[in-house]
Amino acid sequence: MPILSYSYPQSLTSEIFVDPGAIELSILANYYGREIAAYDIQITRCDLYGQENKYLERVMLVYDGLHYDAFAMSPFDGTPEEFDQTIFSVRSDRTIEPV
């Protein structure tokens, strides 16, 4: 019996990961088991995905209207990027702290 498969067109696949929307961010939050905070700097709004699951970690994204960038915290000025922190612990009051 043949196995049926479907692959998304390349243009659709690249749009999903270059400019994800609410559905995609919700799916990614559940997949990675982390909250995703998406800050839209054009309309000054933050959408939080995965909050209903009370995950213990959060990543933050900044959206400028074209694409998303990860928010990263560097331990000190001039530190190589591999030392940047992009995952933050979520406290019981839902605020964040460094991991």
TrEMBL record:
Record keywords, A-Z: Cytoplasm, Hydrolase, Protease, Thiol protease, Ubl conjugation pathway
Highest taxon of the lineage: Eukaryota
Chief location category: cytoplasm
Subcellular location: Cytoplasm
Keyword Protease: yes
One Gene Ontology cellular component: nucleus
Transit peptide among keywords: no
Record-level Gene Ontology MF annotations: cysteine-type deubiquitinase activity
GO BP terms, alphabetized: endoplasmic reticulum unfolded protein response; ERAD pathway; protein deubiquitination
Enzyme class: hydrolase
UniProt-listed Enzyme Commission number(s): 3.4.19.12
Catalytic activity: Thiol-dependent hydrolysis of ester, thioester, amide, peptide and isopeptide bonds formed by the C-terminal Gly of ubiquitin (a 76-residue protein attached to proteins as an intracellular targeting signal)
Function: Hydrolase that can remove conjugated ubiquitin from proteins and may therefore play an important regulatory role at the level of protein turnover by preventing degradation.
Protein name in UniProt: Ubiquitin thioesterase OTU
